[in-house]
Write a structure and sequence with these properties.
alpha/beta; Aldehyde Dehydrogenase, Chain A, domain 1; Aldehyde Dehydrogenase, Chain A, domain 2; 2 domains; seven-stranded mixed sheet; CoA_reduct_LuxC; NADP; acyl-CoA dehydrogenase activity; Ald_DH/histidinol_DH; Long-chain-fatty-acyl-CoA reductase
Length: about 500
C-alpha cells in the first residue's frame, strides 16, 4: 500500500453491530498489508455473550428456518455483486498464503456451501437433525425412558487462514447448532469472516443467527486479553485450528467447564500402487491426480500430498519408471487450473536451498524443476524420504520408491491426516490397516482437497463435539429398578 493511501479498516462485528472506533494499526501475516482494526481490549467486556439464557432466541427457530436463512445468505454471497466480498477478496491478495487467482476462485465458490441440500446432508450424516430439533426418546432394557438432545454452546473459534472457506464453514456449523460464536480472525485471512458477517447484517440485522455471530481480530498470544476472555463463565468450547505453537498456547487456558476441540496441524501422503505402471495411460492419469493433490492450495493445506510412496520397485527398472513418473507429475502440476494451483507467491528460500543441494547428488536423488521457484518433484533413488520431508511446501513433493506396500506403514503415524491412493483397487488392502497406524482419511488420489464436511475430520466429528449432548432420564420404581430399593447385606 502506498504511504499516501488510507489504510484499510477491518471493523469488529459484535452480534449484529459493526464497530469501527478505537482503531489500532496491525499487520497481516507476511508483512504485505497493514490495516486498522478496533482495539479488542476496548471491547472485551462486550465480546462474551454473558447470560447463556440469551441463546434462547435461537430455539424459536426450526431447522427449516435455519436453512431458509442459509439459502438467502448464499444468494447474497455472490462475488460479482457483493461489495463486502469484493473488498475482502482484494485485500486478501496481500495476506493470503496463496496467489490472487486461487483467492478469487475460493471466494467465487463460497455461495455453493450454503445450499439447502449440502447443509442437510452434512448435518444429517453427523449430528442427526432430529437431535437438534428436539428430544429424541429411547426406551432402555431396564425400562428407563431416555431422551437426548444436542444443544448449542458459547464458543470461540480460532480459525485457520489457509482457505477462506473455513470461515464460512465455521459460521454454518454455528448456525445449525444454534450456538453463539466469537470468531478470532487469523492474520493471514482477517477479512473473510468479517465480509460474511457484514452481509448477514445487511440481510437480516435483527435475526437471531445474525445476532449470535461476532468477528474480531487480535494478535494471537496476547495473554492479557486472552486470560480474561478464555474463561468458562464466558465460553464453553474453544475450536482451534492452527500450528503447534498456537495449540500449545491455547491449552494453558483449558480448565473444567472449558473444552478444547483441536483441529491441529497434520501431514498427508500418497500411495501409488504397482498397477499404476500397467500402461502409459494409467501413469498419466495417476500423475495428473497426484499433481492435483500436491498443487492444491499450493500445498498450504494439511490435506496436500508431500511424501509419495511409489510401488515402482527399487531395482534399475523400477527407478527408471519412478523418474519417468516424476516428470509426468511435474508437467501435470504446471498445467493445473490457476484457481487450484500456481507458481507460489514466495518459494521458501530455505527449502529451495535444500532442493538445490540435492541436484548435486544425482546418485541418490533426481530433482525435476524448482530452479525458478515454481515447485519441484524430488525422486529419491533409495527407499527413504529426504531429510527435510516435514518441511516440504510450495508445490515440492518427494517420490519414494518401495517394493511392497507394507513398507509404507512405518511412515504413517498420528500426524498423518489424508492418504491419497491409486489405483482404487488397492484400498481394499489398505483401508483397514492404515488407521491402525494413525491415518485419519483415505481418499481416491486427486481428491485430497475435495473435503466433504459430511465426513469426519481429523478422526473426530467436529460438529458433534461442538454441541452439548444432554440427556433426560425418566424412571419410576414401577418401570425401572430403584437405587433405594437395593437389598441390605449382613456381613
Amino acid at each position: 500500500m502506498s504511504q499516501h493511501t488510507p489504510l484499510p479498516i477491518a471493523p469488529m462485528v459484535i452480534r449484529g453491530q459493526v464497530i469501527t472506533d478505537n482503531l489500532v494499526e496491525v499487520g497481516g501475516r507476511g508483512g504485505d498489508l497493514t490495516f486498522l482494526t478496533p482495539d479488542a481490549h476496548k471491547h472485551l467486556d462486550r465480546l462474551p455473550l454473558g447470560n447463556p439464557a440469551r441463546l434462547g432466541d435461537l430455539y424459536k427457530l426450526s431447522f427449516n428456518d435455519i436453512l431458509d436463512y442459509a439459502e438467502a445468505l448464499g444468494e447474497r454471497l455472490d462475488l460479482a455483486t457483493n461489495t463486502h466480498l469484493q473488498e475482502a477478496c482484494k485485500l486478501s491478495y496481500h495476506t493470503a498464503p496463496v496467489t490472487p487467482t486461487m483467492v478469487t476462485g475460493t471466494y467465487m465458490g463460497l455461495r455453493n456451501m450454503l445450499s439447502r441440500e449440502a447443509i442437510t446432508e452434512a448435518v444429517e450424516s453427523t449430528v442427526g437433525i432430529r437431535y437438534l430439533e428436539g428430544w429424541v426418546p429411547q426406551k432402555l432394557i431396564d425400562g428407563t425412558e431416555l431422551e437426548v438432545r444436542c444443544f448449542g454452546a458459547r464458543a470461540l473459534h480460532i480459525v485457520a487462514g489457509n482457505a477462506p472457506s473455513l470461515s464460512l464453514l465455521t459460521i454454518i456449523r454455528n448456525m445449525v447448532l444454534r450456538s453463539d460464536a466469537i470468531i478470532k480472525a487469523p492474520s493471514n485471512d482477517p477479512f473473510t469472516a468479517l465480509a460474511i458477517a457484514r452481509t448477514m447484517i445487511d440481510m437480516a440485522p435483527d435475526h437471531p443467527l445474525t445476532r449470535h455471530l461476532s468477528v474480531a481480530y487480535w494478535k494471537g498470544g496476547d495473554q492479557a486479553f486472552e486470560a480474561r476472555l478464555y474463561q468458562p463463565q464466558h465460553l464453553e468450547k474453544i475450536v482451534a485450528w492452527g500450528g503447534f505453537a498456537s495449540m500449545k498456547h491455547v491449552t494453558r487456558y483449558i480448565q473444567p467447564g472449558l473444552e478444547l476441540i483441536s483441529l491441529d496441524p497434520k501431514r498427508s501422503a500418497s500411495i501409488i500402487g504397482r498397477g499404476t505402471f500397467a500402461s502409459e495411460d494409467t501413469m498419466r492419469e495417476a500423475a495428473l491426480r497426484l499433481a492435483s493433490d500436491i498443487g492444491a492450495l499450493n500445498q498450504k493445506g494439511c490435506v496436500c500430498a508431500r511424501v509419495v510412496y511409489v510401488q515402482s520397485g527399487t531395482d534399475e527398472e523400477g527407478l527408471r519408471q519412478l523418474n519417468a513418473f516424476g516428470r509426468y507429475v511435474y508437467d501435470a502440476m504446471l498445467g493445473l487450473p490457476n484457481t487450484l494451483s500456481t507458481a507460489p507467491r514466495r518459494y521458501d528460500p530455505a527449502l529451495k536451498a535444500e532442493v538445490d543441494a540435492l541436484r548435486l547428488d544425482d546418485e541418490w536423488y533426481r530433482v525435476i524443476g524448482g530452479k525458478d521457484g515454481e515447485g519441484a518433484i524430488i525422486c529419491s533413488q533409495i527407499p527413504e524420504p529426504v531429510s527435510f520431508a516435514t518441511r516440504l511446501d510450495d508445490r515440492t513433493a518427494n517420490l519414494v520408491p518401495v517394493d511392497s506396500l507394507d513398507e509404507v506403514m512405518a511412515a504413517v503415524d498420528a500426524y498423518t491426516q489424508t492418504v491419497g491412493v491409486y489405483p482404487e483397487g488397492i484400498k481394499e488392502e489398505l483401508k483397514d490397516k492404515l488407521p491402525l497406524y494413525g491415518a485419519q482419511r483415505i481418499v481416491s488420489l486427486g481428491y485430497a482437497a475435495a473435503m466433504k464436511w459430511a465426513a469426519p475430520q481429523d478422526a473426530i466429528e467436529p460438529l458433534r463435539r461442538m454441541g452439548k449432548w444432554i440427556s433426560n432420564q425418566i424412571a419410576s420404581p414401577e418401570t425401572s429398578p430403584a437405587p433405594w430399593m437395593r437389598p441390605n447385606i449382613d456381613l
